[in-house]
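Appendix C reproduces, verbatim, an entry submitted by the partner laboratory led by Prof. M.T., so that reviewers can inspect both the input and the predicted structure.
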Amino acid sequence: MFTGIITDIGQVLNLKNEGDLRARIGCAYDVNGIDIGASIACDGVCLTVVALGDTWNGAPQNWFDVQISAESVGLTNIGAWGVGTPLNLERAFRVGDELGGHIVLGHVDGLADLIDMQDEGDSTRMTFRAPESLAKFIAPKGSVVLNGTSLTVNKVDHCTFGINVIPHTQEVTTWGRAKTGDKINLEIDTVARYVAR
C-alpha cells in the first residue's frame, strides 16, 4: 500500500529480458534499509525488489532490481521505459506514517493520454483522456493516481479530466518533464471502485 506522495525520482539503469523483464533502477534510497521482497511503486506500479546494490559501472550508485511480468508491461507504460527513463518512486506505506495523499494500491488500471498542457499562474493545468471504462470512476475534487502521484481532479468532461500541478510537485516528481502525447499510468480511487461495485 502507498500514499501517492513521491519520495524520490529514480532512473532506469538497465533493462534485461529474462522471461520476465528485469529492470535495474537507480535511486537515492539507503539500500541498507530495503529488504529483498519489499514493494516499491515505480511510476505507480507496485514492483517487488529482487536485488540491491550500491555501485554501478564502478561508481557509487544505489540501485534495486525488480522483475516485471509481461502482463504488467502490457497494462502500463513500462514498455516505453529505456535506459535513462526517470521514474517516480515511493516506498511502501508503514503503519504510523503520515497519509499525505490517499490510499494507493500500486495496481494500475489503464493508461491515460496527456492531451493538453496550459500554464495557469505558476501551476500547469494538464488535461488527460482516460479509457471510457475507467472514466466513470473519476470525479471532480476526487483523487486519482497518475504515474504514482496522488493528484486532485479539478474538472471532468466525459472521458477527459484536468488536474493542476503546482511548481513543488513539478520539481520533486517527473511531472516537470511531462509533455503532450505521454502515456500515463492511471489508478482510479479505491473508494470509487468499491462504491461502483
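The first helix runs from residue 70 to 75. Additional entries are available on request from the coordinating office.
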